From TrEMBL:
Xanthine binds at residues 20, 27, 156. Transmembrane segments: none annotated. Belongs to the purine/pyrimidine phosphoribosyltransferase family. Xpt subfamily. The lineage of its organism: Bacteria, Bacillati, Bacillota, Bacilli, Bacillales. This is Xanthine phosphoribosyltransferase. GO terms for molecular function: xanthine phosphoribosyltransferase activity. CDD domains: PRTases_typeI. It comes from Tumebacillus lipolyticus. 5-phospho-alpha-D-ribose 1-diphosphate binds at residues 128-132. Keywords: Cytoplasm, Glycosyltransferase, Purine salvage, Transferase.
Length: 198
């Protein structure tokens, strides 16, 4: 997705060879027009699939899941990292390791909102090691729902997340794939998607 790549180059900051800061427009201050465009792009990438739910994890994936669910016309669910006092029903749970925070936590989704009748698209802001996404895939599996695929806004292709997901048979679409990065330079993998430049 050309606009996303351009914004990463203009407003993103590679703090190291593995850490990319995009808090000016994606995950602290949010560009709403870009976010809605991202949602439309995910809907386009998975067009023709009878998706019934979009699933993400709090907090940085929520606005992308919302934008995608608006474009698809279906509800979205976010897995909670902490159990609220109002979350009293039965839950699907999975342990997830956060690359950004360098900690493991348990995420949960109410069994009321995900069932074997659902066809689920998972959306998140980053694909790096894939651990958070694998946790969500685990939850989809527990529910008996069918996983349609995973959409990641930014993929660090030099890490092993995509390989883990593809080894599990998961369809993956990332809107900006970074081949390598350093504080001085960010290099993207250029792909063709259905006749369009991503």
């Amino acid at each position: 997705m050309r606009r996303l790549q351009e914004q990463i180059l203009r407003d993103g900051q590679a703090l190291s060879n593995t850490v990319l800061k995009v808090d000016k427009f994606l995950n602290h201050q949010v560009d709403p027009e870009l976010t809605m465009e991202i949602g439309r792009e995910f809907a386009l990438r998975f067009q023709g699939e009878p998706i019934t739910k979009v699933l993400t994890i709090e907090a940085s994936g929520i606005h992308f899941a919302l934008a995608t669910s608006v474009a698809l016309g279906v509800p979205f669910i976010y897995a909670k990292k902490k159990k609220a006092v109002t979350l009293t029903e039965d839950l699907y749970t999975a342990e997830v390791f956060s690359f950004t925070r360098q900690e493991t936590f348990q995420v949960s989704v109410s069994k009321r909102y995900l069932s074997e009748q659902d066809r689920v698209l998972i959306v998140d802001d980053f694909l790096a090691t894939g651990d958070a996404l694998l946790g969500l895939i685990n939850i989809v599996g527990q529910s008996g729902a069918q996983l349609v695929g995973v959409g990641a806004v930014i993929e660090k292709s030099f890490q092993d997340g995509r390989g883990k997901l593809e080894a599990a048979g998961v369809r993956v679409h990332s809107l900006a794939r970074i081949a390598s990065m350093s504080p001085a330079h960010i290099e993207f993998i250029e792909e063709q998607e259905e006749g369009r430049s991503c």
